[in-house]
Write a structure and sequence with these properties.
Shape of chain A: elongated
Strand order of the largest sheet of chain A: 2-1-3
Largest sheet of chain B: 18 strands, parallel
Number of helices of chain A: 10
Order of helices and strands of chain A: HEEHHEHHHHHHH
Oligomer: heterodimer
Largest interface: A-B, 47 and 44 residues
Distance between the termini of chain A: 58 Å
Radius of gyration of chain B: 31 Å
Distance between the termini of chain B: 103 Å
């Protein structure tokens, strides 16, 4: 395997030559995507399927449409490249991402409409890609930040099913948060 | 791959009404995941969005965490990843256990877990970090052995949820403790003890404060505390109430003050300043020799003094229980038809003679209320006790029977044990006698006890 003393570029090249194993991912609407196995293994779900030997030729992903799947693959590719190691990359979004060199790229990546964003969340959840799930959830959290409840409801089309009395009661319970 | 073009959805009016609430449809674990990226206030506010969101907040696992002398960093990190709300974080540490930066890391982690209750018991001095004062979700805070720095308190930073605050052995830089107190608008209970160099503490603008225990400060001001229910205070110099205020809700007042002005200034105004007072404890009375306590609702009164002989009158028609502790037999007349329980504790360190016992009996006889039961604790430090049994039998007519418990705390002169107990039995017949025996039990003593019991 690639020795740790070689530079990143060399090890990548080595990998491309060595690890050209590819898998095919099939979206719910029948489109097939061929990707490097290492990139596909960013998804723990896919990783388990491959390791269990159930891969055959194609891995069907009935919960993911082609549009979303292509984006997910884009994410995995980008993050795999940046990590440059043989293990799946682990990006942490919990701290201020001064350690994450892909911050800018990630920010652009999630500049999508709400529907796409939620589709990405569900896909990241189904495919078990921690980095993508964290990124998308944090994006939603940021969208809710600093807004009043009414503003949040409008942004996400949340229906308020409280009666005025019930709502007052709930506010009272967590009064400290509404000061 | 080429970058995808992004066309944000145009939302027209009809779109809005039909628009799907996709966020609430997300699986619960994902909604919880989103909550944990928010700060505590934002996350708690989501409860008001809709019932689904309230459900999500309530379904977060809550945990209480208690650590003695261990490094909790790893565990806390795991808990954060698993989205567990740390309701209560209690840490007891001694010097060798953890460095300040380590503790800082834990605080950072628990503050990000919506902590409700924080207890830090740190034997060495640990300066609390500034970020702690941004912990909006804290409801209960207990600090022991920590250091508070005045400059950490932001102008606007407030503990909007803090209900209970306890400070024990806390060291302050500047006036940090007062600054902290000023920033707890919803505080309900406050307790401070053993904090050095707290010269002056002031309670104002605490509309929810119900209970305050202030120990070992020099001076203590109570300006505004309209809901104060219970106040226990020991102050070296003085405690100052606003004279023209009525503390309408104060039910229990327990005071021990060094250079007392309380007795002189406030006792005469008890009824007007503290109309609903039910319990009054005046400990260590120094300046008031003549006590005149008059109150319509007082039910329980406790007086203690180390020096003076207390004389006076207690006009409290609803008084049920009265306690007195002092060196000498008091001369206190209690005017209450509801009196049921009287406890006297006499710590004598002067020579006693027969007349003393007779005077004691005389005083005990003043409690004529029907149904009243007396309790006496007697400590006899002096070894000079002279009792003349003949004189006793002459003077003493009927022993008191409304006596529940006679307890001898200490009798210095061991030879006189019998005589003393004998003398007491001329005056009273209690239901129960307790004696602390330092030497071998005396058969004569046991005889005496038996005599009393068979009398009933």
């Amino acid at each position: 395997m690639a020795s740790s003393s070689t530079s990143v570029v060399v090890s990548n090249k080595e990998k491309e030559n060595k690890n050209t194993k590819k898998v095919t991912l099939k979206s719910s609407d029948g489109e097939s995507f061929e990707v490097d196995e290492s990139v596909a293994m960013e998804s723990q779900t896919i990783k388990h399927i491959i390791e269990d030997g159930c891969a055959n030729n194609e891995i069907p992903l009935p919960n993911v449409t082609s549009g979303i799947l292509s984006r997910v693959i884009e994410y995995c590719k980008k993050h795999k490249e940046a990590a440059g190691e043989s293990e799946p990359s682990v990006t942490s979004y919990t701290s201020n991402s001064t350690t994450n060199p892909l911050t800018e790229w990630d920010t652009e990546f999630v500049k999508v409409d709400q529907n796409t964003l939620f589709d990405l969340i569900l896909a990241a959840n189904y495919l078990d890609i921690k980095g993508l799930l964290d990124l998308t959830c944090k994006t939603v959290a940021d969208m809710m930040k600093g807004k009043t409840p009414q503003e949040i409801r409008e942004t996400f089309h949340i229906k308020n099913d409280y009666t005025p009395e019930e709502e007052a009661e709930v506010r009272k319970e967590n009064q400290w948060a509404f000061e | 791959m080429k970058k995808m073009m992004v066309f944000p959805r145009e939302s027209s009016k009809s779109d809005k009404i039909d628009a799907e609430d996709r966020i609430s449809e997300l699986p619960e674990p994902i909604k919880q995941h989103i909550l944990f990226f928010m700060c505590p206030e934002d996350a708690a506010r989501t409860t008001v969005l809709s019932k689904t969101w309230q459900q999500t907040w309530n379904s977060l696992r809550r945990l209480s965490f208690f650590s003695v002398g261990l490094d909790c960093t790893k565990t806390l990190e795991i808990l954060h990843t698993e989205k567990v709300i740390i309701q209560s974080f209690k840490v007891i540490l001694i010097r060798a256990d953890a460095s300040p930066s380590c503790i800082g890391k834990w605080l950072e982690l628990v503050l990000g877990n919506y902590i409700n209750q924080l207890l830090l018991d740190i034997i060495f001095e640990y300066t609390l970090p500034k970020q702690m004062f941004a912990a909006k979700s804290l409801a209960i805070l207990y600090l022991r052995g920590c250091r508070l720095v005045e400059s950490f308190f932001d102008e606007n930073a407030k503990f909007t949820r803090l209900k209970e605050l306890t400070l024990d052995k806390v060291v302050q830089d500047g006036n940090a403790i007062q600054e902290l107190l000023n920033r707890c608008p919803v505080l309900e209970a406050f307790s401070i003890d053993n904090c050095l160099n707290v010269y002056c503490l002031e309670l104002y603008n605490l509309p929810n404060l119900k209970m305050a225990k202030i120990n070992r400060v020099r001076m203590f001001y109570i300006n505004e505390a309209p809901n104060l229910h219970t106040l226990c205070c020991t102050a070296k110099i003085s405690i100052i109430f606003l004279l023209c205020t009525t503390y309408t809700n104060l039910r229990k007042l327990s005071i021990r003050i060094g250079y007392n002005s309380f007795d002189v200034m406030y006792v005469p105004r008890l009824n007007s300043m503290f109309p609903l007072l039910e319990t009054l404890d005046l400990n260590d009375i120094r300046r008031l020799d003549e006590v005149k306590i008059s109150h319509d609702r007082l039910e329980s009164l406790s007086l203690s003094t180390k020096f003076n002989t207390i004389t006076g009158q207690i006009d409290c028609k609803n008084l049920v229980s009265c306690k007195y502790e002092g060196k000498t037999i008091p001369s206190l007349l209690i005017n209450s038809s509801r009196l049921q329980d009287v406890q006297l504790k006499l710590l004598t360190d002067y020579p006693l003679d027969t007349w003393w016992f007779l005077r004691l009996k005389q005083y005990l006889e003043t409690f004529k209320q029907p149904g009243v039961l007396l309790n006496l604790q007697l400590q006899i430090e002096s070894s000079m006790v002279e009792i003349n049994p003949e004189l006793l039998s002459e003077q003493s007519v009927c022993p008191l029977t409304n006596f529940k418990h006679l307890r001898f705390l200490h009798i210095e002169s061991s030879q006189n044990h019998r005589d003393i107990i004998d003398a007491m039995l001329w005056t009273i017949h209690p239901e129960m006698i307790s004696v602390k025996l330092l030497s071998q039990p005396d058969s004569a003593l046991i005889k005496v006890k038996y005599f009393v019991m068979s009398d009933c």
